[in-house]
């Protein structure tokens, strides 16, 4: 049932904050013509928040409201969803899931440049060390649609864009046949 009504696939790009999801998705949208949906931005636009987390100094997502908000668009197919979590989306939304991975030291520097410090910096790097998002994805989706991709260098990113673009083209051809 996963892709029965779609002629263009839906892709999930997930991973720890700072691994390069948005950078990749922007380029991928340009290359494939698929629409990039940045979940954090959609949540802001539709005010999908329910409370404020004092420890992390960020609002807590109202997941049900967000899913209602995205449902029609996802039904159309051809979406690239970009978010640092993945287990609350309906499984049927996605044809493939990519989990970006970054070396701890590289990620530490990236998040430091972004101005993250203290607990926020440490927790995000630990999230990557413990493969939290990878395991979340492997538990929420069928193993064979979950793929890890390295995201340490601009070369990695270029390779990832090439690979995913080729996959999208193949998927579209299969959907036609
Ligand atoms: N493959 C890469 N090689 C080198 N630098 C990268 C790569 N991918 C992303 N970056 C850099 O890392 C930083 C974080 O990237 P980006 O904002 O795309 O991460 P993100 O996963 O979308 O983070 P968030 O979850 O917080 O939205 C940016 O400064 C970006 O230029
Ligand atoms: Mg981002």
From TrEMBL:
For the ligand (ATP), the binding residues are: 18, 20-23, 114
Q: Which GO terms describe its cellular component?
A: cytoplasm; nucleus
Membrane-crossing residue ranges in chain numbering: none
- Which superkingdom, per the lineage? Eukaryota
Instruction: Identify the Pfam families for this entry.
Output: AAA_18
Q: Which reaction does it catalyse?
A: AMP + ATP = 2 ADP; ATP + H2O = ADP + phosphate + H(+)
Q: Return the EC number.
A: 2.7.4.3
The answer on whether this UniProt entry bears the keyword Nucleotide-binding reads yes
Q: Which InterPro entries match?
A: Adenyl_kinase_AK6, P-loop_NTPase
Which GO terms are recorded in the biological process aspect for this UniProt protein?
Answer: ribosomal small subunit biogenesis; rRNA processing
Q: Where is this region: NMPbind?
A: 38-61
| Main subcellular location of this protein, as a coarse class | cytoplasm
Q: What enzyme class is recorded for this protein?
A: transferase
Q: Which proteins does it associate with, and in what oligomeric form?
A: Monomer and homodimer. Interacts with small ribosomal subunit protein uS11. Not a structural component of 43S pre-ribosomes, but transiently interacts with them by binding to uS11.
State the family named in the UniProt similarity comment for this chain.
Belongs to the adenylate kinase family. AK6 subfamily.
Functionally, this protein is described as follows: Broad-specificity nucleoside monophosphate (NMP) kinase that catalyzes the reversible transfer of the terminal phosphate group between nucleoside triphosphates and monophosphates. Has also ATPase activity. Involved in the late cytoplasmic maturation steps of the 40S ribosomal particles, specifically 18S rRNA maturation. While NMP activity is not required for ribosome maturation, ATPase activity is. Associates transiently with small ribosomal subunit protein uS11. ATP hydrolysis breaks the interaction with uS11.
Task: Tell me what this protein is called.
Answer: Adenylate kinase isoenzyme 6 homolog
Q: Which organism is it from?
A: Cryptotermes secundus
Report the gene name: AK6
